[in-house]
Structure formats: C-alpha cells, structure tokens
Design brief:
The protein is mostly beta strands. It is built from three helices and 25 strands. The strands form six sheets. Strands 3, 6, 7, 8, 9, 10 and 11 form a seven-stranded antiparallel beta sheet that branches. Strands 1-2-4-5 form a four-stranded antiparallel beta sheet, with no helix packed on it. A four-stranded antiparallel beta sheet has the order 12-13-14-15, with no helix packed on it. It is globular.
Length: 320
C-alpha cells in the first residue's frame, strides 16, 4: 500500500518527516522540502553533527492515518515542531513546539535551538485517537543549545540537551510527568571528555532508558525522581568509563552498547565487563549497534570513514 502525505496547503507541498506506528495508527509529520538532511558526504556529515549549535529538523504539522487503510484520522498544526522531540506512548503523542515568529517564518525547516527555544517553547501532549490537545505546558529549555531529544517511558517524559559550560559539553536533563506535563526534576552533568566544539559528536549523545533508569553518558538517573543511581537503581553516583571514538549508545535490558574504537558492551548486571565485541571493525557515527531478538546487529555504517578498520561489513552476533 502507498499512503500519500496529507497536504494542508496546496501551494506549499510538504514531505514526510517523522514516522511511527502505534497499534492500528500510523503517525507522521509534514516538513518543508529542504528540512531533511539527505546528502551523503563528509561535508554533509560535518553539517549534521560535528560541532556546536547545529540546525534541528522541524515539521509544520502532525497527522494520523489508519495504518491499514490510509484513511486520515486527524491533523494538528499550531507551530513549529522539533522532530527529535516527537514520541508516542500510552494514549498520547508528545513533542516540543515553538511558536516564535522567526521559527514560523523559516524557509527551509532546519532551525537552530536559540531560535526555537530562546523565547520560550511549549511541551505538548495530544490524544492519539483524536489529535485533540490534552495539555500543553510552557517550558524553559534554553539550556538545550546543541541538541534536544524527547523520550517517553513509564508515565514520564524525558528531555535531554546540551550546551557549552566550563570547558565541557554539559548535558541538561528534565523529567516531566506525562499525565499533566508538570516538571518532576532536572539534573545536569558534563560530558566525560573535556573540551567544547568537539568534532566527534560529544555534544549530541542520545540517552537510553532501561526500566526505570536513564543512562545519559556518563551518568545514570532514576527516571521518576532524577536521583543519581548505579546500574541497579541504588542511590549512588555511577559513572560510565570514558571511551574512544564517536557515536552514541544503545541498550538492551541488561547491557549498554557503544563504540570504544570497536563495537563494545557494558554489562549492567556485572557493573562492567565483556568489553569489545570485535577488534576488526567499527560501528557508524550514530546509533549503529542494535540489540534485538537475542542478537546484536551492526549494520555497516563505516564505509567512507577515514578510520582504517579492516572490515567494512554488516555483522550479527549471537550469544555463545
């Protein structure tokens, strides 16, 4: 089946942005033609993630289709939506929205966070079935200057972003109650590699949520309270060891996966351990190690990199 993107303004064609399915519903966003990063080159890679104050991909509206028939269920348009902050869970879909004039009048849909968040932004929750606004909360997220992410788990909304501070890329975390959007907690910590303006993605690390624990490199927090914890959720100040290379981590129920020169694993049950998964290849520069179905999947993501690793191929690993 082929589902065309719902167009809200005939004279201004939009393109697919965000996409996800929940139950029988298919969710998407309409973004401007040039909002997506599509060029594959070293120069384009640098534009996307190497360095500070990068431009976020944004959308002008959200929509919902029946994923079996393609019939439109609803559309929502009320501001500029930051794509990395869209997340669905429970009976709602959440996102951060800017209604600043400069954001609304942007030509290509790639916008820096000082414009999107500098004069205030709104955290919004919509009903999955109807698209109606359940609540919206004005939110001060100005500490997010390089990147911003939103995740949902266990009735909690997690927002993470970074800025430069004291010679580090410094990370800021905000926990919100998903029921009403009220702020539950906020925390901050430096990246475990010093220096700003980093050229290996130091300012764009993505968090992982495992059960009720948030792993935001190099720290772990209780999802509901923001208290520093160890890998088992006990009150303590666990710190992930410093690693080498770019990329950001993924997680399974029991392990963290990341690049430390090569594909590597940290066993949360043992407080470390296992180390490198291979010594002959490297994962890509983003989230490139996928734990799924009892396997570790590493799709090829290093081709064209100047790093001289001998094998450039997709790998699947199974427990011994």
């Amino acid at each position: 089946m082929t589902f065309p993107l719902p167009q809200l303004v005939a004279a201004s064609p939009h393109y697919w942005g965000y996409i996800a399915s929940l139950g029988g519903l298919l969710f998407g966003s309409g973004q401007k033609r040039d909002a997506a990063y599509t060029d594959v080159s070293k120069e384009a890679d640098a534009e996307i993630q190497w360095g500070d104050f990068k431009r976020m991909v944004t959308s002008d509206y959200l929509f919902c289709l029946d994923r079996h028939s393609g019939q439109k269920r609803w559309t929502y348009k009320n501001g500029t939506i930051i794509n990395p902050t869209i997340a669905g869970g429970g009976s709602r879909i959440y996102f951060v929205e800017s209604r600043n004039r400069q954001a609304l009048e942007d030509d290509d849909g790639k916008i820096t966070l000082d414009i999107l968040l500098g004069n205030g932004a709104n955290l919004v929750a919509l009903d999955l079935e109807t698209g109606g606004t359940v609540w919206e909360q004005p939110s001060d997220l100005r500490m997010c200057q390089h990147i911003i992410y939103l995740s949902y788990a266990n009735d909690t909304i997690l927002i993470v972003g970074s800025k430069n501070r004291e010679g580090y890329a410094w990370y800021y975390l905000y926990g919100f109650n998903a029921e009403d959007g009220k702020l539950l907690w906020q925390q901050n910590h430096p990246n475990n590699r010093p220096g700003t303006g980093g050229d290996h993605g130091e300012q764009i690390h993505h968090p992982a949520i495992v059960g009720d624990i948030v792993y935001a490199e190099p720290c772990a927090y209780d999802l509901r309270t923001g208290a520093r914890v160890d890998t088992q959720g006990n009150r303590a100040s666990w710190s992930m060891p410093r690693r080498s290379g770019c990329g950001t981590m993924s997680a399974s129920a029991f392990c963290l996966f990341y690049r430390d020169s090569n594909p590597s694993v940290y066993d949360l049950r043992r407080g470390g351990g296992l180390g490198k998964l291979t010594h002959v290849n490297r994962p890509g520069c983003w989230i490139n190690i996928i734990p799924a179905g009892g396997l570790i999947l590493i799709p090829e993501g290093s081709s064209g990199c100047t790093c001289s690793y001998p094998l450039q191929t997709s790998i699947a690993l199974t427990p011994r």
